[in-house]
Amino acid sequence: MVGRRRGQPRPPPHLALTPAPREEPPMTDTGFTLTVDQNKYLPPGASEMAAVLAVECTTAQAPDAEVAEVIVIDRSPSMGGSKLAEAKRAAKAALDALREDARFAIVAGGHDAREVYPGGGALATATAEHRKNAAAAIDKMVIGNLTYTGVWLRCAADLLASRPAAIGHVLLLTDGMVNQDAASYTADLDYCAGKFTCDAVGIGTDWDPDELKQIADRFQGTRAFIEDLADLTDYFTEVCGKAMGKAYGDVAILVKTPVDAALTSLRQVYPTLQDLAEHRRDADARGALFPLSAWGTETREYLLEVSGPAWPVGEELRAAQVLVVRGPDREVLARGNVLMCWADDPVRTGQVNPKVAAYTGQERIAEHVTAGLAALAAHDPATATSHLGTARRLAGEVGNEGTARILDRLVDFDPGTGTARLKPGVSAADRFQAEVGTDRTVRTPTKRTEQP
């Protein structure tokens, strides 16, 4: 039970964190569940708490939500030859992954955004005839000029606006850096905010991973690097297939904190690392709302950090109420509590929740990889080796085998001694794989903490 242990002094009234009300808003049964993992025990004087929120959605039947897909292909001069040929092949294969009732469009990007199919600012229905006609239009795509990525995304947003009830998704392929001036590019991204989810993929090694990271974070999608162009078709098919499985839009996490407690941060930690800070909205004086991208049958996990006053030993308090909500009326889909309990038992307070530890470790991997790659670019091999070696050690400790394999392209790591040696001749592709690959995390087993 959330409350005050008998015999302990009552905190001053102005610090009171009220327990959950007796009558909570009813939850709608839509297949969403929320699991909270944490070690609620804090040593005397501590005021910081971290918890992992696992949100799972299961759809028992085929999704009936309307979905819309816009595939955007870079056609700048550097896309000539095999790049454009493979991009065309991948785009045509992606058409087969679309649901027959889905809406779609194909856009070719240069200094402008050319609507390859169907044209006229519209979306086509993915019937057999439209797929055939779209494939023919893709075959006719020719090289253009420049990389005005913001213009392309704005075009996609306008196309998707023709079906406002649809769950919109953009698949963006590029091989170069953004040529737009910063002001217009930022204005285009601002224009598109909240209008779709975007997965961005780079090919070749002339694009900027930071630019794709900005797009992935801004539009709550992913960034990817396809090193072998032969793999591009499988990537397009997989991404479009996942987009077709989305069933619920307008879902958000609502975090409510009482007086004198504060939400420090909320970050997605599975299946990819993503800071949600820029998506935060004030719901009311004590609530923060974080809109999320559309959901299908999937699990995502988030690391929540809160701070509160250091209360006396024996007090157990709800530091945050977490609600998964949907729609403007904030229909409650799932709920959970983040607790803080002060104890003078070092055994209890010294235990680190394994999920919190694992995801904190995977965030540290990404930080060390970023620092190591920066040191490589600055021709500082000693610093690069230190950071990349630490990242490789952490990858082994948290069981992220995929990241470990990627880092093995950069360093020779000895698990016995924990030492690393930078490999000679690290290529641009090696660096791109390391930077983009560490976005992805592995899920740790759930061990739910006892709740009141």
From TrEMBL:
<dbReference type="Pfam" id="PF13768">
    <property type="entry name" value="VWA_3"/>
</dbReference>
<dbReference type="InterPro" id="IPR041176">
    <property type="entry name" value="VWA_3_C"/>
</dbReference>
<dbReference type="InterPro" id="IPR051266">
    <property type="entry name" value="CLCR"/>
</dbReference>
<feature type="domain" description="VWFA">
    <location>
        <begin position="68"/>
        <end position="239"/>
    </location>
</feature>
<dbReference type="InterPro" id="IPR002035">
    <property type="entry name" value="VWF_A"/>
</dbReference>
<feature type="region of interest" description="Disordered">
    <location>
        <begin position="1"/>
        <end position="29"/>
    </location>
</feature>
<dbReference type="Pfam" id="PF18571">
    <property type="entry name" value="VWA_3_C"/>
</dbReference>
<protein>
    <submittedName>
        <fullName>VWA domain-containing protein</fullName>
    </submittedName>
</protein>
<dbReference type="InterPro" id="IPR036465">
    <property type="entry name" value="vWFA_dom_sf"/>
</dbReference>
